[in-house]
Amino acid sequence: MSASEFYAKEIKSAFKQFTDFPIEGEQFEDFLPIIGNPKLFQKLINAFATHLQEKFVTRKIDFIAGVEARGLLFGPSVALALGVGFVPIRRAGKLPGECATVTFTKLDHEETFEMQVEAIPFDSNVVIMDDVLATGGSAMAAGNLIKQVGAHILEYDFVLTLDSLHGEEKLATPIFSLLHS
């Protein structure tokens, strides 16, 4: 049994569900209670770090890219555990300097993500992290930013994948999800 499988049940039990959020008819899976529990948060970080160390033995990970908002909360900790750099992918207007940008449709509106152009050198290997894979729009947009700067996406990593929404179908790169719902 892998570290991720070992901790998955305990981590899933800490999620809190909100009905009709962010829009009516949606069920929101909130993983923030995990961050409030230092022992459980450490297990979450260990599960991702162990998975990535085992999977990418022969390929070097250069950066973890965390997607706003929740990927910014645990992505840096995973990067630190692996001894690699961390790069934030933020909503428009949050980062200084020259930024790569991508606009995409999310639920019922358009959003724009940005990443500082100089944050990831050309030909770097990147793992993209976020909390939930739903329809795949945010993850695909983050991947497009990584590609714009000439870097390689090794994998998309999520705490939870909502399988019924088939977001993984939009992503050409392999995904890893600690939990499925």
Automatic annotation (TrEMBL):
Pathway note: Purine metabolism; AMP biosynthesis via salvage pathway; AMP from adenine: step 1/1
MF (Gene Ontology): adenine binding; adenine phosphoribosyltransferase activity; AMP binding
Pfam families registered for this protein in UniProt: Pribosyltran (PF00156)
GO cellular component, one term: cytoplasm
Gene expressing this chain: APT2_2
Job of this protein: Catalyzes a salvage reaction resulting in the formation of AMP, that is energically less costly than de novo synthesis.
Primary residence: cytoplasm
Residue ranges of every copy of the Phosphoribosyltransferase domain listed in the record: 38-169
Family: Belongs to the purine/pyrimidine phosphoribosyltransferase family.
Swiss-Prot/TrEMBL catalytic activity: AMP + diphosphate = 5-phospho-alpha-D-ribose 1-diphosphate + adenine
EC number of the protein: 2.4.2.7
InterPro entries: Ade_phspho_trans, PRTase-like, PRTase_dom, UPRTase/APRTase
Top-level class of the enzyme under EC nomenclature: transferase
Annotated organism of origin: Saccharomyces pastorianus (Lager yeast)
Keyword field contains Kinase: no
Name used for this protein in its record: adenine phosphoribosyltransferase
Keywords on record: Cytoplasm, Glycosyltransferase, Purine salvage, Transferase
Gene3D superfamilies registered for this protein in UniProt: 3.40.50.2020
